[in-house]
Amino acid sequence: MNQARAAKSHNNVTRLKGRKELNRCNLFIGNWVIDPSYPLYDSSSCPFIDAEFDCQKYGRPDNRYLKYSWKPDSCALPRFNGVDFLNRWRGKKIMFVGDSLSLNMWESLSCMIHASVPNATTSFLRREALSTVIFQDYGVTILLYRTPYLVDIVREDVGPVLTLDSIQAGKAWLGMDMLIFNSWHWWTHTGNSQGWDYIRDGPNLLKDMDRLDAFYKGMTTWAQWVDANVDPTKTKVFFQGISPTHYQGQDWNQPKKSCSGELEPLSGSTYPAGLPPATNIVNRVLKSMKNPVYLLDITLLSQLRKDAHPSAYSGDHAGNDCSHWCLPGLPDTWNVLLNAALMM
Predict the structure, then answer these.
(1) pLDDT tens profile 224-260
(2) Which residue in 156, 186, 292, 189 sits closest to 233, CA to CA?
(3) Torsion angle of C-alpha atoms 115, 180, 241, 70, degrees rounded to 10
(4) pLDDT tens across 120-175, in order?
(5) How far apart are alpha carbons 143 and 5 in whole angstroms?
């Protein structure tokens, strides 16, 4: 009996010590190391993976990219435990809000949890705007709301208008226990792939404008929405940092390359091209907010992973995809970091 009590007390001490260490730790400065316990799940046994991320199924010949875990310089990351996660979030709703990189992270988290409880009853619903995975035995709902700009595209007489000061869609985000937002990927799209014909900036209707300025204005609208509509005592809010692309090999001093055929990460903790300018905007907007929003600062650690994209091994994207990420793969680390941040 005493032994059991001592073991329990030792576990509590270890947990407290771990939490203290985590609190002092910058989770996002570190390097990639080979980890024999990775990957955290097998793509063939996860029912939630889209063809576009299922690189093994679509013929990727190498598998070393599956074996890397992120090692922060100043602490150890807690290992992800799906049962523990479900118990901590029992009866709660978690929503990812954003573009296809939110989809990438939402599917990853669902697969990571599913691997811990493969026989649990789940329901899975995919819709255009709102998709859900429910772990029914625990009452945990993990939702995805697709909105690539966070602000609205409004149908006007002139056609679809990216409206920088409007978030009508936000009604769908209310009542959540955790929100993980993300945007940027689409702000650089031009021509047919941008999804709008005009931008409305206040009273002005514009054919186009500087995309970083537009992003700053849209993000400021989002920040005001969070400050006005989210109760920080009831809802934890995260911003999923800017996810990098690897189309331009000169970014990592290999001008003739893209992500295609890349087999390993860059070593160390620096990326030759530096951070994309959108990261400054995210930092500026988050600093201006009255509600605490935790930045999952995944940009640099993801820049190092030039090897982790689907490239040609996607069941959905023709050509060379150097912007999304294979599953299993890098987004699993984003979720390991999310889980660590929740334990701090």
Answers:
(1) 999 999 999 999 999 999 999 999 999 999 999 999 9
(2) 292
(3) -20
(4) 999 999 998 999 999 999 999 999 999 999 999 999 999 999 999 999 999 999 99
(5) 39
Q: Is 190 exposed, middle or buried (0-12, 13-18, 19+ CB in 10 A)?
A: exposed
Which pair of structure tokens corresponds to residue 171? Answer: 């009604």
**Peptide bond preceding 39 in cis form (omega within 30 of 0):** yes
Q: How far is CA 210 from CA 5, 190, 216, 313, in A?
A: 62, 12, 10, 34
pLDDT digits (tens, 9 = 90+) for 165-216: 999 999 999 999 999 999 999 999 998 889 999 999 999 999 999 999 999 9
**CA separation, residue 94 to residues 133, 264, 305 (Å):** 10, 32, 27
Catalytic residues: 100, 321, 324
| Threshold 0.90, pTM exceeds | yes
CB 151 within 8 A of CB 162: yes
